[in-house]
Amino acid sequence: MNKYIILLILCSICFSSSLSQQEKFFCKQCHKFVHTIQKVEHFWDKSIVWFLELVAEGYCSYAKIEKHSVCKGAIHEMTPVIFEGIQKRFLDEDFICPLIRWCPKVYEELKLEDYVSNILKDKPLNTQWPEIDGTDTIEIIHVSDIHTDLLYKEGTLPKCDEPLCCREEFKAKENDPKAGYWGSAAVCDLPERTFEQFVNFLKTDVINPNKKTFLFWTGDNVQHDVWKQGREYNIKNSRRITEIFTKGDLGITFIPQIGNHEAFPVNQYDYMTEKDSNLRVEFSNMWRDWLGDETAEFFKQNGFYAKEFGNFKVIAFDSQICNPDNWYLLKDPTDPTGFLQWTEQELKESELKDQAVYFTAHIYTSSCLVPWARRFNALVERYAYIVRGQIYGHAHGEFFNLYKDQNGEPMNIAYISSSLTTYTYKLPSFRKFIVDAKTMIPLNYYEYRLDLEKYNQIGKDAVLKWDIAFDFLSEYGATRMYPADLFAITERLFKEPELVKKFDFNSNSGTGISGDSARYLYCKLNHSINDDLHLCLGEKLKKDWTEYISPGWRRRIVYKSKKESKKSKKQKKQKKQQQ
Questions:
Q1: Interval 302-316: pLDDT, tens
Q2: Residue 71: half-sphere exposure toward Cβ, Cα within 13 Å
Q3: Longest CA span, the chain
Q4: Count of alpha carbons within 13 Å of 366, Cβ hemisphere only?
Q5: In Å, what is the CA distance from 15 to each residue of 18, 21, 92, 98, 107?
Q6: Torsion (CA) 250, 254, 257, 262 in degrees, nearest 10
Q7: I need a surface site. Which of 150, 225, 271, 542 has the fewest CB within 10 A?
Q8: Ramachandran quadrant class, 207 (left: phi over 0; alpha: psi -120 to 50; beta: rest)
Q9: What is the crossing angle of helices 45-62 and 68-90, to 10°?
Q10: What integer best gives the mean pLDDT of the chain?
């Protein structure tokens, strides 16, 4: 390898910023040099990963982040993914050789400003939602973060020295608090029997047989033992939940999507290879009866889909494409799967039809990668008139995010729901929206919570009934659910301490108050992009270590052949002559 190192040094001295006729020769030599490094480095891959794991495990245990077994399991799952992401991005001839100017540029940077201005160039003057029709309504049930634990054990410790408790190995002593039969609002996930009762409750008490009803199921189904999982293990819960929903014979329309916990390792999905395609195959087959063959096949290929219901379209996407904890995006975060490009076309079609659109996914955009979230925000702004709702989960707490236009005015809303699981320290919750059937604008929603203490005291013979904890309009003193109305609610936070407590209490699913300030809640509710939240709080934006190595958005440059270049010059010359 020494000859390549010497060659690299000599040519770096001789080369200027411009490339000469020697380009092909030196470019070829650079590629050979990089390939040689890759071969040597590949030989040491396992040793490097092993060393990194050892260092990370030692730090995790020494800093008492978790007990050693948890550190070891989680780090063993994640390290190879992080290493591969960095390796594929930076130890690549298409990156290194243009960087040292031995080869022409292979990629060009895609600037955020260019994307946003291009999307908004034909934005309508009026993007305000229409007036509510009010002659008929439909209903949308939203359930998220079910997280059933198939190993949940009544009578065990609900708090322990691992990230998930209420299991056989955590024996409770006589005077210790103990896990309840129907669940525990502690460091525990949901017993499957509680979910079975939930489905029965929907059928008997929630679903109105005289109303068109949708159920948005936004993923995260497996228990939180992330340090000892596997591919089949992570899919098992989703399969069982789907079967329970199906056996319930609810007579409603399901809109399902996966969460970040369905992947293995947790959060990790590789969009640049087919290694994780089995996940889409599994879920497309699992949900085929709900989606239909055509949509299921599209979902299998892309991880997102659209379903139309007359004047209403739902776009359901896999939010792993914007998940900051998806280390595979280190390879290339540029619009994975082409979702944003596809969505623009879907929105254009809906605009021509005057068709309302709802977005739904697991992770809400203020928890997404900022460059992705800003581009998505631009799409929502351009089509704000037809985007009438956004429904997400992930937070295990209830709140909303307002989307702002380029002038800082509220123009859209994302509704984030609480979790059905009790993890961590939550009451099992879900909600039901009442929606104007013609305009598809939400009129109100009802938040349901389960009184676990009550039903645990009754025991295994209980028939579970969720209580309506509140309805949105009454709880927050509003008359409508338009963006401007929700913005007006947030402005009241600085004058109404009781309103602050309500938001705080509800974001904890009714289990207590965190002490959130009016300023924090105002910023949290008013921003759909993470950086904007921190700026609103008066914080300086700080990069974590991943941002220093995280690549920007890019596009491969298509160079014309000499023949094509000559033809293009000739055509330009002819046009000038004609003028």
A1: 999 999 999 999 999
A2: 17
A3: 96
A4: 25
A5: 8, 12, 21, 12, 21
A6: 20
A7: 542
A8: beta
A9: 140
A10: 91
Pairwise CA distance, residues 470 & 476, whole Å: 10
One-letter amino acid for residue 218 of the chain: T
Number of neighbours of residue 321 by Cβ within 10 angstroms: 24
As a whole number of angstroms, the distance between CA 493 and CA 476 comes to 10
Residue 569: phi and psi, rounded to 5, are -65, -40
Whether residue 122 has pLDDT greater than 80: yes
Structure confidence at residue 148 (pLDDT)? 98
- Report d(CA 281, CA 58) in Å as an integer: 38
State how far the Cα of 336 lies from the Cα of 302, in Å rounded to an integer.
Answer: 10
- d(C-alpha 97, C-alpha 106), whole Å: 9
Q: Is 219 left (phi over 0), alpha (psi -120 to 50) or beta?
A: left
Q: Assess whether pLDDT exceeds 50 at residue 15.
A: no
Residue 82 is predicted with a pLDDT of: 83
- Range 264-290 average pLDDT: 93
Which H or E run includes 387?
strand 387-392
Would you state the structure tokens that stand for residue 122, as one six-digit string?
């034909």
pLDDT per residue as tens digits for the range 321-343: 999 999 999 888 999 999 999 99
DSSP state for residue 218 in the 8-state scheme: -
Long-range (24+ apart) CB contacts under 8 A made by 156-161 are 158/184, 158/186, 158/187, 158/188, 159/186, 159/187, 160/187, 161/67
CA dihedral 269, 273, 278, 281 (to 10 degrees): 100
CA dihedral sign, ordered 121, 122, 126, 128: negative
**The pLDDT of residue 429 is above 90:** yes
Peptide bond before 135: cis, by omega within 30 degrees of 0? no
Q: Which residues pair with 471 in a beta bridge?
A: 446
Helix spans in 44-111 (H): 45-62, 68-90, 93-99
Q: Do the Cβ atoms of 117 and 375 come closer than 8 Å?
A: no
Q: In this structure, what DSSP letter does residue 551 have?
A: -
| Size of the chain, expressed as the number of residues it contains | 579
Q: Where are the alpha helices (DSSP H) in 91-204?
A: 93-99, 112-120, 192-201
What b-and-e string marks burial along 183-201, b requiring 16 or more CB atoms within 10 Å of the CB? bbbbbbbbbbbbbbbbbeb
Q: What is the pLDDT of residue 397?
A: 95
Angle at 286 between CA 284 and CA 290, to 5 degrees: 80
In the chain, the percentage of residues whose pLDDT exceeds 70 is 91
* Residues 510, 449: Cα–Cα separation, whole Å: 8
Q: What is the mean pLDDT of residues 419-445?
A: 98
Cis peptide, bond prior to residue 265, ω within 30 of zero: yes
- The number of angstroms, rounded, from the C-alpha of 277 to the middle of its chain's C-alpha atoms is 18
- Burial class for 123, CB neighbours closer than 10 Å (0-12, 13-18, 19+): middle
- pLDDT in the model for residue 113: 96
Q: Find residue 404's DSSP bridge partners.
A: 410
* Closest of 180, 139, 129, 137 to residue 158, by C-alpha: 180
Q: What average pLDDT does range 361-381 have in this prediction?
A: 97
Q: Residue 41: what pLDDT? A: 62
Tens digits of per-residue pLDDT, 458-484?
999 999 999 999 999 999 999 999 999
